[in-house]
Amino acid sequence: MTRLVGQASWPVVGSAGFSLYRTGREACPTRSFLLAVLLALAAAVPATAGNVALVIGNQAYSPGPLKSPAADARLVERALRDAGFATILRENASQAEMLAAETEFVNRLQPADTALVFFAGYAVAVNDENYLLGVDSGAGNFQAKAVPLSEMLGRLRSRAARGIVILDASRMYIVAAQRGLSPGLAMPRNLPPEIWMASTAGPGQVATDNLRLENSAFSSALADAIAQPGLTIEEAFNRARSRVLDETGSEQAPWWMSTATGSFNFHPPEGSPPPTDAATVARAMEAARQSERREDWDAAIDLVIRVLKSAPGTELASTARRTLTYLMARRDGDLRYRVMDYRGAAMFYEQAVAAEPAKVDTAIRLADAYLLAIRVPDAIRVLESVRARGESPAAEKAAAMLQKLDIH
What we know:
By secondary structure, this protein is an alpha/beta fold. It has 3 domains: about 1-265, Rossmann fold; about 270-355, no CATH class; about 360-408, no CATH class. It is about 45% helix and about 10% strand. It has 14 helices and 10 strands. The strands form 3 sheets. A 4-stranded mixed beta sheet has the order 4-8-9-10. A 3-stranded mixed beta sheet has the order 1-3-2, with helices on both faces. Strands 5-6-7 form a 3-stranded antiparallel beta sheet. The longest helix is centred in the C-terminal third of the chain and has 24 residues, at about 315-340. The termini are far apart.
């Protein structure tokens, strides 16, 4: 099924890069698909021109058929169309049909367009690489019937202006499970510039579909957030995340990251623009810091997004984006820590420490997660680094932890 509506352009790959499978790579026909998409994405610029979306919902898998991806794709496609996107919709697409969809998608893109890709269905991670599966993936070499994300993102790093990637695909694929693959998707490493990426669940996490509902919790919340006037893309992703957390009792935590330097609105803001005077922005940042000290991560994130919305393209916006990366990673790390997923917590704390190395309390938290995940050498490395920073409560705590580990 194909539908092409309106004028516009955007890419989606399902909040912060990939690489590629190593067997049969040279012969894989998906490379032509990705190359054509990437060439089109390379020219994408802010949404003052057109927006084009490629929307795919795959559910007729064998084995492991799904219930909602086709309905999810239709729901999101309607929301994007109402937001002014030209849309290409595919349901239950084989690899060949995904290649045909690519042709229509790329033919619609113009140099000033923004491209978005939404995928609902199965995606798997193999050796830290992520793949979107066609419905003909079957029980054989499913990678040969998949679209690898790494090659796309590798080229995007140097060529794309802007892109949006949204995946409602963090499901347990029975074939992958039978082969002993880890659940969920892999953490993208080296995400290219000017990309937003969102997923129904964090790296290594699996979303559970509610078979009593027509749509997945994530796609339903996302479509509603897209429809809200004036929301930035960051606000839309956060709103969808909060709703899914509420509806699932925090069992499912959507995740997003960005390397964009600006923002994007699915619908233009209504009324007057937000105040941009320095005093107002400074107050918002100070309020964000106060929320951070209380570990009210969601409140701090909302305030930093407000700063980004009020002062785009400024030096403060650059600082705010780094702060936003830290806050989201710290929030998600704490969530994984509370449910005793210490490996997952460590992964997010690593991101937080990389974004804000001076946050030594988070470094201590990272070391603690490493210890609970039985990664003692990594914990020792972090603790020694904190101890070496000189006198501080965190350095004293690091020294005490090292002493318990009999490291002097």
